[in-house]
Amino acid sequence: TVRDATSSDRFKGILLVAKDQSSQNILGNWPPIDSSVYVVSCDGTFSNGITQASSTTKSQIQATWTSPSTIAQGNIVIR
After folding, report:
1. Domain segments of the chain: what residues?
2. Burial (Cβ within 10 Å: 0-12, 13-18, ≥19) of residue 47
3. What is the pTM of this model?
4. Which are the contacts of 17, defined by CB distance < 8 A and separation ≥ 6?
5. For the segment 6-32, what is each residue's pLDDT rounded down to a tens digit?
6. Backbone dihedral region of 70: left (phi > 0), alpha (psi from -120 to 50 degrees) or beta?
7. String of b and e for 15-38 (b: at least 16 CB within 10 Å)?
8. pLDDT of 36-58, one tens digit each?
């Protein structure tokens, strides 16, 4: 779940991808959960990013990231 810092904050847009911190390669995928988010393809790989489905003001979105089946040790950053 992505939430604003305070209960009174709101946002209209978001784009999330998971990257290997050292290589900056985009990793994993984001299975669709509901109609509030769209799954997008970045770097030619299907469903490896997620964005909002509308520009209506919101205080949170929910999404699930699935790691790749094989992954080297290291840090993964979601941005």
Report:
1. 2-78
2. middle
3. 0.79
4. 26, 42, 48, 49, 50, 78, 79
5. 778 888 889 999 999 999 999 999 988
6. beta
7. ebbbbbeeeeebbbbbeeeeeebe
8. 889 999 888 888 999 999 999 98
